Amino acid sequence: MALLQISEPGESTAPHQHRLAVGIDLGTTNSLVATVRSGVAVTLPGLNGDSMVPSVVRYHSDGGIEVGESARAAAPQDPENTIISVKRLMGRSLADLNQQAQRFPYAFAKTDSSVPRIVTAAGEVSAVEVSAEILKLLRLRAEESLAGELSGAVITVPAYFDDAQRQATKDAARLAGINVLRLLNEPTAAAVAYGLDRGSEGVHVVYDLGGGTFDVSILRFTRGVFEVLATAGDSALGGDDFDHLLAQWLMAQAGIADDLGHKQLRALLHQARAVKEQLSSELVVAVEVVRADGSIWAGDIDRSTFNEIITPLVKKTLLPCRRTLRDSGVSLEEIADVVMVGGSTRVPLVREQVGQFFQCQPLVDIDPDKVVAIGAAIQADILVGNKPDNEMLLLDVIPLSLGLETMGALVEKVVPRNTTIPTTRAQEFTTFKDGQTAMSIHVLQGEREMVDDCRSLARFELRGIPAMVAGAARILVTFQVDADGLLSVSAEETVSGVRSSIEVKPSYGLQESEIETMLRDSFTHAKEDMSVRALREQQVDADRVLVSLAAALAADGDVLLSATERGVIDVNINQLQQARMGSDIQAIKQAIENLDQVTDSYAQRRMDASVKKVLTGHRLDDFKA
Amino acid sequence: MAVTLTERAATHVSNFFAKRGKGAGLRLGVRTSGCSGMAYVLEFVDAVAPEDQVFEAHGVKVVIDPKSMLYLDGTELDFVKEGLNEGFKFNNPNVKDSCGCGESFTV
To answer: Distances from the Cα of A174 to the Cαs of A167, A168, A179, in angstroms?
Structure first.
């Protein structure tokens, strides 16, 4: 039988209804996949028990493709067919790559297209295709681990990725058969993993020192959204550099010359890495280095020596930190947390220096290798709908209804509150007056019926509506809220195609208490709101009748009406105007009906007259089909 | 009338509670749905209802509502690994038939 996971109270999903969602950290050096199981986000290990998959793909001449550990092991022997760090190529054109200082050991195919294609033994491949192979492996691992098909994934990307790089990542996912729920910035994912999105508003620093890359980001969490204020880094600085320095030190100690063979160097780097990792938990580590002639150098290295060796590199990471601070205009006192990401942040000196620099204790509770994938998994679980609506974060539902102003200062709700985002809702509106060519669109937020009781978010105008009779224009207003809570409203006159739109920064990230007050008001005022609304609707109706009647009378009232008839109509118009000023809904309704009655024959005559006008000068045959 | 947990299941449940940080027990239950009649419920419990029956197994409080008890009596909850997949399994002697995947069953 199927294996079950524990759910939160009241959240058991119906059989076959639990939707499998994962978070994927598609890294430069390593990639991971994570999911939420029994309420806990965990990374999914492969058969060897290791969660991390080296982001390395090797192409064989027989068309076979190897991904992960075995491909990485083969990289030195087969560098041309083994693609490492493909993330650096994502969304890049050949021209971009030539500008980069870094050289790639691959042969690029000469093509007319701007997308670089790497020549391998198995044919030409693009960066998107290579990434797709890594994603495919992660997808298979997830589907095997969860025993079901994935409904979607959240994939993380560096905060500095531009649209082309993001699109390339999405393309790779599609190629791997993964439905992308959304792309999430890596620093944001790390913050989500620590639950900072459930905390108070504030500024957070994410310090990400991986194997080969370093990134630091400053995020501001406001109104349920993480905004990346600044990001900086060094694309060629990471834990591997620590290993190199330590290996050099070991060589110097053991009296080994600098002309080591490739194989020996790799063995030494491997050893250096192990020593580095040991020094994170121990103060002194014993080392034995085998020289080329088979003799052995044995010695100790203590943490303070190691710290001395790597200090220049750690200091080097602080420069981008200083730059982000300056770029973001954030002061040290404003920083609430520093989240540590990447395996190299296990090094005690890194934690110490970063803590000193930002003057706060860095967050290190979650495995820094897994924290990004875990945050992505938490986000994926929410986006796929495994959490009930009322438990959704501010980030993921609309806390208050969104709508727009209609005639009579009334609010027409387009997106009701608690709608999960991303969402798109459209509604049709029309013109109020004959020949109206523009429309002002006032976007509002709140639960009340009147404009004055709601929050104004934005206003924009739709111009260039072709002149038509009132009510003939079809104006489609679309509200779109993306997964980041950004609202864009567009209005389009569907006959002529004129359109106009606006983007609203999520100014609806109100405090919980404000939202509660607004909600409570809408309940306590429900009854009066309804009667005000009914009155306004009646008044708007009255206005519409009065305006169109005035237009008709001006056009042909003198021709079609006798003085007495006109007198009766005028009296009724007067009565309706009087009633409209008051607040008696019934009186207005009655007055509209009365006016309708006394103008009945006038309307008839207008109709006849216009028909006659059309027919005059034509023979009946002209109108036969 | 009893419902039990295997030791392995109890260990995992305790771990999950430790990570979750709160919880009064583990709710087992059934509800009508699914492709073969009924489905199991497996949830964290924050509040025990007065009508609930509570069992203790390997240090884990198992909470069951009286209606579900009719279908679950004698059940043993186990935690198993099947390849890369892992999760909880109901060994329920009352089950007569279940759907192909076992997510729902009839008694």
So the answer is: 10, 10, 6
Q: Does B85 touch chain A (CB under 8 A)?
A: yes
> Cα separation of A570 and A576, whole Å?
10
Which A residues, 130 through 189, put their C-beta within 8 Å of a C-beta on chain B?
141, 144-147
> Residue A5: which of B20, B82, B87 has the nearest Cβ?
B87
Q: What are phi and psi of A174, to 5 degrees?
A: -60, -40
Q: Is A32 helix (H, G, I), strand (E, B) or coil?
A: strand
Q: How is the beta sheet containing A107-108 ordered, strand by strand?
A: A107-108, A117-120, A123-126
Confidence at residue A389, expressed as pLDDT on a 0 to 100 scale: 43
**Which stretch of DSSP H or E encloses residue A517?**
helix A512-524
Report chain A's mean pLDDT, rounded to a whole number.
83
B31 shares contact with chain A (CB less than 8 Å): yes
The most distant pair of C-alpha atoms in chain A lies apart, rounded to whole Å, by 125
- Give the mean pLDDT of A200-210: 90
Best B82, B84, B94 residue to mutate vs chain A (most A CBs within 10 Å): B84
pLDDT single digits (tens) A321-343: 998 898 888 899 999 999 999 99
Cis status of the peptide bond prior to A388, with omega within 30 of 0: no
Q: What is the pLDDT of residue B31?
A: 75
Catalytic one among A66, A171, A186, A197? A186
B8 close contact with A: CB closer than 8 A: no
Residue A557 amino acid letter: G
Predicted confidence at residue A365, as pLDDT, reads 92
> What is the DSSP pairing of strand A150-157 with strand A20-26?
parallel
Mean pLDDT of A127-136: 94
* Sole residue written with tokens 């100014």: A507
Which residue, among A352, A220, A242, A331, has the nearest Cα to A206 in the 3D structure? A220
Chain B residue numbers touching A47 (CB-CB < 8 A) = 84
**pTM score, whole prediction:** 0.60
Q: Which of residues 40-59 of B touch A (CB under 8 A)?
A: 40-47
Q: Is the minimum CB–CB distance between B11 and chain A shorter than 8 Å?
A: no
CB A104 within 8 A of CB A97: yes
| All domains of chain B in start order, with CATH | 4-106 (2.60.300.12)
Quote the tokens at residue A516: 């509660």
Angle at CA of residue A521, ends A517 and A525, nearest 5°: 175
DSSP A122-140: TEEEEHHHHHHHHHHHHHH
Most confident of A41-45, A258-262, A598-602, B84-88: A41-45
Tell me how close the Cα of A13 comes to any Cα of chain B, in angstroms: 8
